[in-house]
Amino acid sequence: MTNPKTIAFACYELTANFQLPLFRAIKTAAINHNLNLIVFEGRSVGSKFYSDADHNCVYQLIHPDQYDALVLSGGSLFTFVSRDEATTWASSFYQKPLVSLNFKLPNATSILVNSQKGMHEAISFLNEKLNLTQIAFVTGPAGNAEAEDRYRAYLNTMADCGLSTDNYVFRGDFTPSSGVIALQEILDSGLPIEAILFANDDMAIATIDYLNQSNPEKLNEISLIGFDNSIPSKTLTPKLASIAQPFTEMATKIINHVLTDDYPHTVESLDCKFIPRESCGSKNPVEHELFSKKYFSLAFKIQENIHAVDEETLSEQLANALPHFGIKNCYICLYVGGLIDLTEADAPEYSRVLFAYENNRLVEQNYQPVFKTKELLPTEDKINLPKQCVVKSMFFQKVHSGYIIIDINQGLEEDYANITSFLSIHIYSMIQMRNLEVANQGKEKANNDLQILNTKLRLANERLRLQSTTDELTGLLNRRGFFERIKAFAISGRANQTFMAFYADVDNLKKVNDSFGHKHGDEVIKSCAHILKKTFRTEDFIGRVGGDEFLICARNCNPVNISNMLQRLRDKVKRFNLANPSIPDIDISMGHAYFNGSTEEDIIQVFEKADEMLYKTKQSKKKSMLTK
């Protein structure tokens, strides 16, 4: 029997809205055809944002001896470089067959996405079914191949439909903030815009979040459509209509090339498809498949359960932690020679295995094998790469210690990133502590530096924990923290628990924002969070999950207690309004539902019921105001 072939996949951040569906499609196809898959997760080549250059050092680890074919997620990898620069960068990988996605490369099989069909379906829906003619477009970054293709598709389709594009094109750059800026320009222009098409989902999602907070009535006046059909687009309120890329078909094309050893240096094109949803006036049935995936990590916090000061203890504690994340295989390799800035140097020739975890158990090592870095793992020691895995750079403060290899057959992509980030800080601190001990043996300075380093490590761990579960503005739980807490309480214990679920939002916040500015509006949101904390008990969970939206879990509570609780809320809101006569009166609308379930889907559904009741409550208030 011949060994299965191996695909290497160089891609942008796995958890990015536009990248995750493509990654999952390729992973699923590789598993179904018994192919090995090595994912090298970085960022856009040439990017100057944040730590992108450090993430991109993982591309130095790609070597032709590792794979049979290399797939580049070109559309996202080459956002910040010219076509010539992208071609030069890719040329170092021409030793083996190369497949480029969403970016045309010479000496490669290029699989592109044709935006025309999906764009035509979207604009035809707006024009023919909704009778809309004033349709604006928010572009992507100038020079980006995908962004330009989508812009051309918009212009061509509008022309085909006999619709004007004069003054209806607004500049964006794929980032969420640019979508909000473009929306503000549209609203300020005074143009009779009836619909807005965005060049990607991120800009459209940010726009919906902004309007939900500042101008929700506009969501009923303007149809919004994104591009990429990302996972968050299906969970928004309202759900975002989007143009879906053919990720499954792209993955199938890749697999066919690998299985047949056929890599023509040609361009293949696949069509997009329009997915109508609520944001453009569609009344499509509920997409129940949304709840078929696992959305909650377990309540285990890696930063609270790993406190090692030496490599042996770290290995033992990490081996105990990984089962909580569903990770079956994991390896940590450190560069021989210590810490290094890989943005200014090549990856060291040799590495050593610090941690080896195979088939849910720690591999005992009498020594740490040294091997050539290009091999990723020491082949002579019979340590094999997982069939499907991701390779991520480990760095902290611009200094690289090595890389981590994680089996991707189970677990959540968000957890891979959190684990890598935490371990990067921890290993950096351990190496620095060891260096300090060696350099300052027996000196008071070594002890002082060690205490400072420990303090930094504790603060970094605490920041990581708070950032992952806490809302910065109010100090309440954020969406992730709220659902982790409620899952642990309601369905992870020995006996399932009951509770009252509440969905709340703030009325008249727009008036405050319009009259006094968003900074004052933020103070109102913080005050409302304080009101909710005083209304409910300390044992209840409260989370802020949107601009002015809150979720509450009232433990061991039932519908009999609702009237008293609502009266307490009204009293506290009334006292707040009396104490703040200089701003418009605010109110907190609330919907509720009773939970007596046993699964994660039950949790999602009970808050959907509470959201439906909240909607009816707000509609009732509006009707009441109109009749006064």
Topology:
Blueprint: E1 6-11, H1 20-32, E2 36-41, H2 52-55, E3 69-72, H3 74-77, H4 83-90, E4 98-101, E5 109-114, H5 116-129, E6 135-138, H6 145-160, E7 169-170, H7 176-189, E8 195-198, H8 201-214, H9 218-221, E9 223-228, E10 241-244, H10 247-260, E11 267-271, E12 273-275, H11 302-305, H12 311-321, E13 330-335, E14 350-358, E15 361-362, E16 370-372, E17 388-396, E18 399-407, H13 413-439, H14 444-469, H15 479-490, E19 499-507, H16 509-516, H17 518-535, E20 541-544, E21 549-555, H18 562-579, E22 587-595, H19 600-627
Parallel strand pairs: 1-2, 1-3, 2-17, 3-4, 4-5, 5-11, 6-7, 6-8, 8-9, 9-10
Antiparallel strand pairs: 10-12, 13-14, 13-18, 14-15, 14-16, 17-18, 19-21, 19-22, 20-21
Account of the 3D structure:
The protein has 628 residues and is of the alpha/beta class. It has 19 helices and 22 strands. Strand 6 (135-138), helix 6 and strand 7 form a beta-alpha-beta unit. Helix 13 packs antiparallel against helix 14, helix 16 (509-516) packs antiparallel against helix 17 and helix 17 runs antiparallel to helix 18. The longest helix is centred in the last third of the chain and has 28 residues, at 600-627. It is globular and about 80 Å long.
